[in-house]
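Form 7-S
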Amino acid sequence: MLNSRPIEMFALQGTMTQDEFIQLIHQHKGLIQKICTLYCQTLHDRQDLFQEIIIQLWKSLPKFRNESKASTWMYRVALNTAISDLRKKQIRIRASTTDYNVSDIAEVNETSDQAEKLELLYSALRQLSDIEKALVMLYLDNKSYEEMEDILGINQNNLRVKMNRIKEKLRNLTKAGSYGY
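Output:
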């Protein structure tokens, strides 16, 4: 059984065990899954990226100085891993012929209308740059601009400007997609 100390304290003291690390991953696996879904089109690629993110989190654990929340640190490592993994794949393969299947992530009880809207959203998100995708994901996770600055290393004023531009871009992309042009 795990100790009752908060997980963040283990990282600060450099005494996190493998079981405690696994507990930390379970507490925050949703954020890792979101990143995988945003940056990968197939289930197989999402699973590979998930594993790579876990490996990178484990490797970078000794560098976590507890100057930010564990979730902020995890976002930073996960996003950097996803972006670098995507760039490696783009170097090897310039174009992907795999179609994205919304049913891989859609809930079983969703209506076809909800699935269509979800597919339209993911289609629009795929057209964003890596940084824009990361910013949207953090925004949708209700991260403050201060937390976004810590994670992405972009100052808050630039983040606000980027977010307004991204919102407009997504409005146009989803509007065009819903009208078929």
